[in-house]
Design a protein that fits this description.
With 492 residues, the protein is α/β, with parallel strands linked by helices. The protein has 14 helices and 25 strands. β13 and β14 form a beta hairpin.
């Protein structure tokens, strides 16, 4: 099998009555999801969708999202994923860049589209079309075509559309399910947004590839999730650090902890060693931290069986490779030296939509993808992420990694959240600027600077500290550092 849709349909033939998706208490079997996907495929074909044309999904989590996604692929179309939090500026950019033939939305999200200048046909869920769709183009040409376009989270600037082929998706999910021992017996509790590759490219793909099942929630609600984890119905849970922090707080309110799951996985942002160890105490299991990105889906993972080393993202998935290179010479570095992480494998995307120069720039001549992430690799192969290449601060000739300072300040009892970035400096080129959300209303800038000076080399300490009420974050909780300057200016 070389695509998600082929594998899904194969499971539909073998186990039609097995549960596939649970949503709001309703169970959808594999046969149910196949019928829904077929209705979408029929509708799109009848409305004139041609092979390779694009269908944008502007939907919240729901079985309709999954069936529209599968039905579009079944009809030979390409999906454009859109964050449902986006409004006019972002929507205009993505829709004008991707030029979809149709857009699928619902009553909740539709108002955001009404004022757009772009004229794109809207589709509603088809209720009457035949469930016996038989059109099939599953061949090598299909597998090398673009399956979906996912726009980068935009933490450093305007989002770019990453094009991933059916073969990319299949290669990635095959590696993930192998590494994590994902089988048809697994049942996943999924609260991540499906417009993001963490929820869709890992949670949904892994479920459909292995013939397993998932319970889908519209969003993450800590009390609901804790209750469902306590039911004992699940073997898998995927989350981001913010979710695990809230689950820790919720666990403190209960005398009895939930039964152990087979696997808790964390990604999309850095998980602190303190949170990992505290969660292990509260829930009886160490979280497996992994590393991925829009352009590649999954790159590295701590082992299912073996040491899950706090502060690291583990080693490359099966049939993938990673290395650390010097940020200027691009030569591979020895263990424990900081540089830029590069990866290679069949999971790596085709390129950026309408951005041939950006695509060429992010690949080396010998085919390695430049992730833009800084890090190091230990002698025994564990990778550690230390920051983003674009966020590297060079002050007085010294390389300063913001994440190192952020991790130190996160240990201060008066600091709730912190982001560190470089600020132009006439003497040093750049200086360190810390943007802090307080836990302690009496926390002063002097105390923040002194704490860093006591725990880090003096040149790494912040020269500037700004206190704010909150940090700007994207849908998965990543701090959007390109918006930090606006936060500094407004103080909000």
């Amino acid at each position: 099998m070389f695509s998600i849709i082929e594998t899904f349909l194969s499971h539909c033939e073998k186990t039609p009555n097995k549960r596939c998706v649970v949503f709001n208490g309703t169970v959808f079997t594999y046969a149910d999801m196949r019928a829904m996907a077929a209705r979408w495929a029929n509708t799109l074909t009848e409305r004139g969708l041609k092979t390779g044309e694009r269908v944008a999904l502007f939907l919240d989590n729901s079985p309709e999202f999954i069936s529209a996604y599968l039905g579009t692929h079944w009809a030979g179309g390409t999906i454009v994923l859109i964050n449902t939090a986006y409004r006019q500026v972002e929507l205009n950019h993505i829709l004008s860049d991707s030029q979809p033939r149709f857009i699928v939305t619902d009553a909740h999200s539709r108002p955001a589209l009404d004022n757009l200048k772009l004229k794109i046909e809207n589709l509603e869920f088809p209720a009457q079309a035949s469930p016996h769709f038989s059109f099939s183009i599953f061949n090598s040409q299909f597998c090398d075509s673009v399956a979906f376009i996912a726009y980068t989270s935009g933490t450093t600037g305007k989002a770019k559309g990453a094009m991933l082929t059916h073969r990319n998706l299949a290669a990635n999910v095959a590696s993930v399910t192998e590494a994590w021992g994902w089988t048809a017996n697994d049942h996943l509790l999924l609260t991540l947004p499906l417009f993001h590759v963490h929820g869709l490219g890992v949670g949904v793909h892994g479920t459909l590839w292995s013939g397993a099942s998932l319970e889908l929630h519209p969003h993450f609600d800590v009390k609901t999730v804790y209750g469902r984890l306590s039911s004992g119905d699940f073997s898998l849970f995927f989350g981001v650090p913010t979710m695990y922090g809230r689950l820790l707080s919720e666990a403190a309110k209960h005398a009895k902890r939930p039964p152990a799951l087979r696997l808790y996985v964390c990604g999309s942002a850095a998980l602190s060693a303190e949170t990992m160890l505290a969660f292990e105490q509260a829930y009886g299991q160490r979280i497996l931290e992994r590393y991925g990105m829009t352009e590649t889906i999954m790159n590295m993972t701590n082992p299912l069986n073996g040491e899950r080393r706090p502060g690291t993202v583990g080693q490359p998935f099966p049939r993938q490779a990673g290395r650390v290179v010097h940020v200027r010479t691009r030569q591979p570095l020895p263990p424990d030296q900081d540089g830029e992480i590069e990866v290679r494998g069949a999971n790596v995307f085709k390129g950026y939509l309408n951005r041939p120069e950006a695509t060429a720039e992010c690949f080396t001549e010998d085919g390695w993808f430049k992730t833009g992430d800084l890090g190091r690799v230990s002698a025994d192969g564990y990778f550690t992420i230390t920051g983003r290449a674009k966020e590297l601060i060079i002050s007085g000739g010294f390389n300063i990694y913001p994440r190192e300072i952020e991790e130190v300040l996160a240990q201060h009892s008066g600091v709730a959240e912190v982001a560190v970035l470089g600020r132009p400096d006439p003497d040093f080129g750049e200086s360190v600027h810390a943007v802090v959300v307080k836990n302690d209303p009496n926390l002063s800038a002097e105390a923040v600077i002194a704490f860093c000076k006591d725990n880090l080399a003096s040149y790494k300490k912040p020269r500037y500290v700004t206190f704010v009420s909150a940090l700007p974050r994207n849908a998965l909780g990543k701090v959007q550092k390109h918006l930090i300057s606006q936060v500094i200016e407004t103080g909000r």
